Amino acid sequence: MGRGGADRLGEANMTDHQLFCQDVLRYGTGLTLVRHGGGSNCPCAEKTGVYSPEWHRNHPVDTDCEGVGRTGTVVSELSIKAFVFNYTMVKTFVQFQVVGNVTARDMMIIGTVNEEDGTFLDLNTLDLLNDYFVYNGCRYRLKQSEILSSDEKVAQFAILRQIQGQE
Q: What are phi and psi of 29, to 5 degrees?
C-alpha cells in the first residue's frame, strides 16, 4: 500500500511534487501572505527605498503607508499552508546554508502551497521589501529561500524574519 494506507492508493502515479503539496495541504499550518502591487514610494522611503518609522513619527498627519514604504498599492491576501518551525529549534537537523544572522524569533517554513487551489507557491516571485507573511499574529518577511528538488521542483525551505510583534 502507498504511504498512509488505503486512503492513498490512488497516489501511485503522483509525482513527488504532487504528493508533497497534498501532504502540506493536509498537515501543514495556515499562514497569510500579504502582497502589495503597484503604487508609488511613500515620502518615508524616498531617501533609503525602505519604510522609515521615524519619518512617520515626525510627520504624523502625512500619508500612512502602513509600514511598507509605498502608497496607493493594491493589497491582496492569500491563504497558504506550509510546515512551520522556529528556526533555532531545527537548525541542527537541516542542511541549509543561512546568510546572515537568525534570531530566536525567526521561523523556517518548508513547502508553500496555495490553500485555495493546492498549487505550489514559488517564493521567488515575492516583492522582498513589501510582501510579508502573517503567522500567529506576527508579521514576517522572506529572508532567504532555497528550492528542494528531485527530478522536479518539489518544495522549498525558507527563513522568515520577524518584522513586527503581535498585530
A: -105, 145
The whole-angstrom distance between residue 95's C-alpha and the CA centroid of its chain comes to 20
What's the DSSP call for residue 145?
E
**What's the pLDDT at 40?**
83
- How many other β-carbons are positioned within 10 Å of the β-carbon of residue 100? 8
In this prediction, residue 64 carries a pLDDT of 79
Look at residues 54, 34, 65, 51 and name the one whose alpha carbon lies nearest to residue 140: 34
Nearest-CA neighbor of 16 among 156, 149, 165, 164? 149
**DSSP assignment of 61-118:** TS---TTSSEESPEEEEEEEEEEEEEHHHHTTT------S---TT-EEEEEEEETTT-
CB-based burial label for 163 (10 Å; 0-12, 13-18, 19+): middle
| Pair 105, 143: CB distance under 8 Å | no
Segments in the chain below pLDDT 70: 1-11, 90-99, 150-151, 164-167
**Residue 2 and residue 13: Cα distance in Å, rounded?**
10
pTM for the complete prediction? Answer: 0.73
